[in-house]
Amino acid sequence: MTAAAFDADSRTAPERRPFAPGTRMWDETGLITFSLTAGSAFLLQTMEPTIAAVVDEHSTFRTDPLGRAVRSIGSVMMWIYGGDEAIAEADRLRKMHVSLNTTTPDGVRHKALTSAPWAWVLHTGTFAFTENAEYFARRPLTPAEKDAYYQETVQLMRNFMVAPKEIPANYAEFEKFFTDIVENHLQETGTAHDYLRVIQSIAPPRQLPRALRPAWKRVVAPVGRLQYFVTVGTTPEAARRKLGLMWSESDERKLKALGWFIARTVPLLPERVRYFPIAYEARRLERDRARLRKVIDLRPM
């Protein structure tokens, strides 16, 4: 299944199907650099009023940030590399979110599966992927590559049963839509500020003995600073402004230098290290299947 296999106007094709080799998502979502821009995606989610309210009440990102991050990454890997189980994972998440509702002090009722917030979660992933390519790939995506990739994200939204009305027709329309949401709908929220605070000082795993916690803090402090720096740097300027986040030209140069370094070192890593475990094993399995198919096709008849 290649990007070209997706319909030009994907909003009219509701078919749900898993991803496979030949797509950009298959090649790049599982890379360890995914975690670098996932931070800005989650930050943008916590600025959406309904998501912010639901996350504030139900998420464990404050009390178990590491566990939540690991579970989230594992789930995303299933979306792309889970084969037939990818659809089951999407259904599991939808079922889990049915009861994730809350009422804010102003009396507004927020439901996690309301169509626009549900779609926004996946839209932030689209933004994060293109930002990742902007900073942490050898070159940014071309307009044609962005549009081809966007058609793949539309398939992902179909798999999550996103309402067709929430899906822009192409990447150009998505950019307009995304900019409008960031500038005119997202808000400064306490949940967003809490998330920024949490990623700067990553809490230890719950099972870590108390005696080892000071050492944990020292070891992960640089990781927290890096994640905060990249998260702020890859967040749109309009969102940074709403949150009162500072970002200088010097910061931008440092982020680009970091991206240049990462873009040239990560491809040199062994595939087992370069990809998250589920992605690595799925890719290895597909190569094994391809080799078996070749041997079968070459058998004497």
Proportion of strand residues: under 5%
Strand order across the largest sheet: 1-2
What average pLDDT do the residues reach?
Answer: 91
Radius of gyration: 20 Å
The stretches of 5 or more residues where confidence is low (pLDDT under 50) are 1-13
Number of helices: 14
Structural class: mainly alpha
Overview of this protein structure:
This protein has 301 residues and is an all-alpha fold. The protein has one domain (3-297). The protein contains 14 helices and two strands. It has helices spanning 24-28, 34-45, 49-58, 65-81, 84-97, 115-136, 143-159, 171-184, 190-200, 213-233, 237-243, 249-265, 271-274, 277-297, and strands at residues 101-103, 109-111. The chain has a two-stranded antiparallel sheet with strand order 1-2. A hairpin with a 5-residue loop joins strand 1 and strand 2. The relative contact order is 0.16.
Topology of helices and strands:
Blueprint: H1 24-28, H2 34-45, H3 49-58, H4 65-81, H5 84-97, E1 101-103, E2 109-111, H6 115-136, H7 143-159, H8 171-184, H9 190-200, H10 213-233, H11 237-243, H12 249-265, H13 271-274, H14 277-297
Helix pairs in contact: 2-6, 2-10, 4-5, 4-14, 6-7
Short summary:
This protein has 14 helices and two strands, in the order H-H-H-H-H-E-E-H-H-H-H-H-H-H-H-H.
Keywords:
single chain; 301 residues; mainly alpha; two-stranded antiparallel ribbon; 64% helix; globular; disordered N terminus
